[in-house]
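Field: COMPLEX_INPUT
Field: COMPONENT_COUNT = two
Field: RESIDUE_TOTAL = 364
Field: MODE = joint
Values follow.
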Amino acid sequence: MQPIQHLFRTEYRKIISVLCKRFGFAQIKIAEDIASDTFLAAAQSWGLKGMPANPVAWLYHVINNKAINYLKRHQVFENKVVKELSEEEINTPELDLSPQNIIDSQLQMMFAICHPSIPVEAQVGLALRILCGFGIEEIADAFLTNKETINKRLYRAENILQLYNRLLQIQYSPVAALNRTYALAKANGKQKAIAEAEKLRLNDNHFYFTLLGELYTGIDNQKAKIHFDTALALAKTQNDKQVIQKKIGKL
Amino acid sequence: MQEYMLIFRHRNGKEVASPEQLEAWMKQTMDWIGGIAAQNKYVTGQGLDFDDARVVWHNNVVTDGPFGEVKETLGGFIVVRAESPEEAVEFAKGSPVLQGEGNSVEVRRIIHG
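Field: COMPLEX_OUTPUT
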């Protein structure tokens, strides 16, 4: 099993257990929602920025925040949870994610799932979902696919860039220069591409200003608009103008 | 517009680089040259091998190269087009060679005619 799947499965069980111990087992659906949200956030963030130095601490930090937010917002807190909690518990909204409490919580969870009042089939389902973290695997899989996809895209962009670097040495053309700059943006990021794009100075070329507009989109939308406007003025065919208009619309 | 030759010198020319370092180096160099070529200012360029180098002196005396007396060994060159020596210098500043302390890029205008 991949490390990320193993991590998710192990931590899911612990987190759900702590949340249920805190909120009560009747709130298990909410506990699962909070846990799933956290793992989804992890998959998205880690897919883009890479694994944090301490993934477990990252997860616990986020879970804590979500639990606190939940307690603050929800009516359930007023109507159900408050009645169950003592004064002391109300005043300490943070989750107790200490090793001892995690162990205690998991033990409680196991007894709860195996309680004779729950039908056996349901017990198996609960055990698989909560104790074994079976549902969480899909999220972990999404993370892996994301990471692979991102890596593949970077690899491809890098190769295309080397192709254009070489092509331009043999034979310069404005189109190759623009394509090279685009590949550079994909491989090394927009900021680097912007720096190089500014040097191209293909000032009579509407594709040039379209590229500049694209590169600035999301970084400096005002500049992007200026460049797109210039491109619009230089563009000759209706089709080209429409394409540029669409890009302006997306700003 | 004039043509300028940018000449690279390495302080430890014979220092052996690992395959990973060589690959990273090649990529940086190609990116640098690609940037100049994208501006339509690149003319030509070559790396120069340190192996099998010779120096021929006055009276046809031949010694092993590269030119050993000088501490910095010639690594290669590129030729660029530039509006001024200053622009050529700006190109030179981007060379990966300069990451090494003691390395240099000499900028010389090419005489045509």
